[in-house]
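Please supply some protein, with fold tokens.
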Amino acid sequence: MTAVPLPRQPSQPPDRPGSNMPPEVTPVFALKELVARLNREQHKIQDLLSSLGFALRSFNNLNQFLELIPLMASRVTDCDGGALLLFKPNGQVRLERLHCQDSRWSKDLRKALEAATRQSPAFGNRNDGAIAPTAQAIADLDHQVSHYLGTSVQLFGTAILVKNAERGRLYVFSRDPQYTWTETRQKLVRLVADQTSVAIENDELSVELRKKERLDRELEIGAEIQLRLLPRHCPQILGVDLAARCLTASRVGGDYYDFIPASYDQIRSKRDGGSETAKWSVAIGDVMGKGVPAGLIMTMTRGMLRAEVLNGHSPARILQHLNRVMYADLENSNRFVTLFYSEYDPQTRILSYSNAAHNPPLLWHAATKTIKRLDTLGMLIGLDADTHYQDAQIQLQEGDTLIYYTDGFTDAANQGGERFDEENLTKAFQAACEQCQSPQEILDHLFEQVQDFIGSGNRNADDMTLIVMRIQPI
């Protein structure tokens, strides 16, 4: 705040009637004038800072707000001008904004400040990529600015701090030799600098929010595409009743299931009223991990598997070819795929299958009311390019029920950390087969059992996929 001198005493007080000279100034009158001027100065500062606060609340353009900073800093301190220097991501210092009341001096002032920034060493970066100027680097910058402005300039600089990291400097200067940087003036400059920091941080948060909104939209599109790639409904196969559901832990998941016709000609034949007796493939898989990377690999697996099925090879040969084709891509991504592939022949009721380290499906025999695991030796897809897989077959009978599932079921954990393991799944499956009348009822029952186990309202940490297949009378 500028010091206000006392009014000088008149050399000859007026003593003639009708004189235009002011009345004699007493010490009391002078004190009242001083208080009034200080109040006016205080109100001016409050109005300026209030205007800056309003601009901070309402601005939608950071560059426009930064235009005000040197002006406001010089006005609230009655200085000749101010300059805002910001540290750029490449470590360089740039003169962002400049205000100077003397337009003739402004040009020389800009040259001096730009010369000072060129002479300042580049700042280093932290591990997170943010600018990390050292105390010595800041001191060198202050020295260069003071040097190029000259010793006749009264200079004060303060930091622009964003998330405890210095992102720039605000300088205010005066050419008045009687000007002093009082504690009050320094506080006012720091107050303007703090509002500048808030504006920069708000702008960066807005940019991050827009990025997040775009990413969320892209995830929504990815989830929608992935959902469309999964079967919209179960196919109609002679003597088979099917139900399936995939519940992802996040918007994009790594679980995969599919129903693939042995020949796509049979789909057109079916639409034309043809036979339902052709072979169908039932596959279920799980990509290690969750989210977008797992979803991308799942999509790739689906396309390659569907193309491989058309070649008419055995399940083991299909998995072997798929593994060789996907090996290079999966090795580079450090991810792997478990996959159980099976083919069902409605005419013979024979299920042929091969397993690539996936959770073995459970088969409930209606005649004996016992449960069997369907499994063969085989490694993960993408782990070893030369791995071999085995073929197996099983004869199914009327009433037999089969479930294909992913490890989201058996790895589901409750609040105590206990897992809904294969033993609990087997018991729940056994009870469902004896009590439920349809695959859809069995599917609903098993999902309800897992949800009750992990707790009502809780969400499983992994994707859960389930296919229920029951053999019906022809």
